[in-house]
Amino acid sequence: LGVADSLGLKCWVHGVVYGVNMRPLGLQFTIIDGSGGIGVFRGAGNLGYTLAETDSVKLLGTVSQFNGLTQINVDSIVFISTGSMLKLPTLVTTLTEPTESDLTIFKNAMLVNPAQWTGTGAGFNVDVTDGTNVIQVRIDADVSLYSQPAPVGRFHVCGLGGQFDASSPYTTGYQLLPRYTADIKYLPVAMVGADTLVCVGDSLTIGSMNSGDTYLWSTGAATQTITVNAAGTYSVIVTDTSLNEMAYDTILVSLQAQVAASFTIAGSSPSFSFTDNSTNATTLAWSFGDGNTSSASNPSHTYTTPGTYVVTLIASNSCGADTITDSVTVLVGVENAFAGHVMVYPNPNHGQFVVDVQGIGSNTVDLVIADQLGRSVYHQVGGLRQALQLDLAPGLYIVRVATAEGNAWSRIIVE
Q1: Residue 363: its pLDDT value, please?
Q2: Residue 265 buriedness (CB in 10 A; 0-12 / 13-18 / 19+)
Q3: Which residues pair with 176 in a beta bridge?
Q4: Of 42, 125, 132, 412, whose Cβ has the fewest other Cβ atoms within 10 Å?
Q5: CA atoms within 13 A on the CB side of 209
Q6: Could you read off the pLDDT of 21-39 as tens digits, one per residue?
Q7: What 3-state class would DSSP assign to 79?
Q8: Ramachandran bin of 307, using left for φ above 0, alpha for ψ from -120 to 50, beta for the remaining angles
Q9: pTM (2 decimals)?
Q10: Phi/psi class of residue 267: alpha, beta or left (left: φ > 0; alpha: ψ in -120 to 50)?
């Protein structure tokens, strides 16, 4: 069954050259004509012929067989022309005697064991499967694919049929021998990933291994990466036009809402409570303006030193952060030693009143008007007498005066 006929016959054969020379010190390649193919071999010397695929040649040689592979031991080569059209590869699922010295293709393959791809020796064998069938692929050291990394994912593999079977009747050991790196054609990949939560403006990228792939998203975009501005289901079709192969994937995208910081203040000097009113926040960072901080949702804080403090809240989630500030004025411990020198009138009033400081050596005062929460509603450094006209809500307010001589405070009522 696998034993060649016409062994020892000397004859002329005519065909087109396929593949590369796999015997640098001599000749080893394949020729194919309209009736089939046959291996060509010469142990040493190239008979003056430099091999090139698509050459049309005429050969004189003797029919022989090596490890089951029928071949011509060539004695003479006549170059006829170059640029001949190559045949389309024959689609196979198994390798048998008819695939010997034929251009074949095995589709939808993947490596059975990537560790077999050693890149060592005169060549190495790897098993590939389409999920049902397994064939052996021989990577010869004289082809460019030998130095490449092991293929990842699924691919089509094209090459010339070979055989390496040392025992008659030579019906096993069939192999497929790729000629070039390009004989491995990766299938298009449409891997967008698992359903996900993203931020507005984030991107979705298709995992693809083929530089020639084309993309078509359900949005109409034709790029490998798109920007997401809305929640929903996104789908993509990846096409490899050279292989006429397509891949498809979908992903459900939810949007993480943007965070907005907000808080309110309650209490009275020197102790205040802060209530978080932020939306879509997952973490909070408070700064009370006196060096103290908190990450609690609704913290409280007591100040020990008088002054006006800026309270900052940074609300964050996975998509970013928002910052908001407010202020409190603390009157605890304020010396009221020269309160008799400070006159505020009229009191009560409607927001129009005079602050008059008399009998001190200073020419200027630091004047703060604060509400009952200690928040500053007016601040001015000015003269000893200041006439104010403020748009204040009805309520109790604290007038604080600071000078070089000391501090004093008083209460006023706005009606």
Answers
A1: 86
A2: middle
A3: 137, 161
A4: 132
A5: 11
A6: 999 999 999 999 989 999 9
A7: strand
A8: left
A9: 0.58
A10: left
In whole angstroms, what is the distance from residue 355 CA to residue 400 CA?
10
Neighbours of 193 (CB within 10 A): 11
Cis bond leading into 306, ω under 30°? no
Instruction: Name the average pLDDT for the chain.
Output: 91
DSSP one-letter code for 241: T
* Secondary structure element (H or E) that encloses residue 411, with its range: strand 406-414
Nearest-Å Rg of the Cα atoms of the chain is 44
Instruction: Quote the CA–CA distance of 19 and 148 in Å, as a whole number.
Output: 18
Given a cut of 60, is residue 334 above it in pLDDT? no
pLDDT tens sequence across 126-167: 999 999 999 999 999 999 999 999 998 889 999 999 999 999
Question: What is the C-alpha to C-alpha distance for residues 180 and 139, in angstroms, rounded to an integer?
Answer: 10
Of 75, 27, 25, residue with least CA distance to 52: 27
**Residue type at 100?**
E
Query: From CA 360, how far away is CA 123, in angstroms rounded?
Result: 102
Structure tokens at 185: 């054609």
Residues in the chain: 415
Do strands 56-66 and 10-18 pair parallel, antiparallel, or not at all (unpaired)?
Answer: antiparallel
Tokens representing residue 238 in the block: 């990846």
Supply 29's token pair. 């390649």
Give yes or no for residue 65 having a pLDDT over 70.
Answer: yes
At residue 181, φ and ψ (nearest 5 deg) are -60, -35
State the virtual CA torsion across 67, 71, 77, 79 in degrees, nearest 10.
Answer: -120
Per-residue model confidence (pLDDT) at position 173? 95
Are 54 and 84 spatial neighbours (Cβ–Cβ below 8 Å)? yes
Place of tokens 């993509």: 236
Strands 90-91 and 103-111, bridge-based pairing = parallel
**97-124 per-position pLDDT tens digit:** 999 999 999 998 999 999 999 999 999 9
